[in-house]
Amino acid sequence: MAYEIVRQFPKDMIFKEVGPLISLYQPTHRSSPDNKQDPIVFKNLLRVIEKSLEQLPNDDAVHSIMKSLHEIKEDEDFWMHTLDGIAVFASSNKCIVYNLQIPVKEYAVVADRFHITPLIKAFQSVEEYQLLGLSRENFSLYQGNRYGFEEMKIHPDTPRTMKEVLGSELSGPYLSHGSYGGAGSPTMYHGHGDVKQEIDKDTEKYFRYVDSFVFEKYSKKTKRPLILVALKEYHSEFRKISNNPYLLEKGIHKSIESFDKDELLEKARSLIEAINKEKLQKVVESFAGAEAESLGSSDLARVIKAASEGRVETILIEEDIVLPGKIDFETGKVRVGDNDDPEFDDILDDLAELVISNGGDVFVLDKDEMPGDTGVAAIFRYS
Q: Domain range for residue 252?
């Protein structure tokens, strides 16, 4: 296979490959019959690429690039498993493809650098998460995104219930008191305070096991947000002992068994969307504070100068604005050009790459989310 499907951004090749470099974005569809049109759209975008490449003298590089892209075009299995959009980056040495969970606008360009701002937009939001369904008796784990979720396969030999986990350590008082109304229901017990204390100790031991297991086997590897789904009283008990940094502060206060799938999906999706919105709001508020202290600016020339000197900590870029041209990363000078010329792409996109390469953060926002009207806003590092 002449191309590779990747999941992590950014990839090293984005900053290391030399031109000509191909960047192609396309909205796609998850199911038939809508996805039948996707290869046709891709073929039309390839014509744009080919027309631009005709201006270049290096036939060997052009042939190598187009070979990878034509393989994608002809791969029927690839087009049957797309999501909501694709991003394709190709050089004479390598071709990578991102399957995206958000739609993107059609865009195809040949330039000296890859066009990365739509990809930044796709990866700046939390899209995938995990759900932990928890009671005092057992737990379950699910993998989800905005479209749905499914239960994760845990090895059958893994202890799951409190009895399996604690074994001989399970207290006598607990064994004589069961839960009623299903696994998600609270344990019912009667009698003296020492009985409750023993049960609470068992619960704490069990919750510690669940917390450690989920973190070590899943959260630590995936780094995805973890949403706790449990009765309200279990939230405070579990959070009190949890050491999982990916556990979200807000959770869902009902037993997971009491939900139908659509209702649970909607609640999880609302939590994730709120996280994304809050994150961007905090960045915009940070810019307002920095600008008031002369540590931020929306003046493009000033921002480019600061970025070329490695002084930009965070930059906000307006989505869908394209300023044809390029930035000389060595001098910080700007050359205005034409998108049809394979030497030029987008000044704002170059600015995003420059900030990332110097260890800064880049966020791509909708027009109505942006502070100011210049299409750019930067927070500078302390001098």
A: 129-276
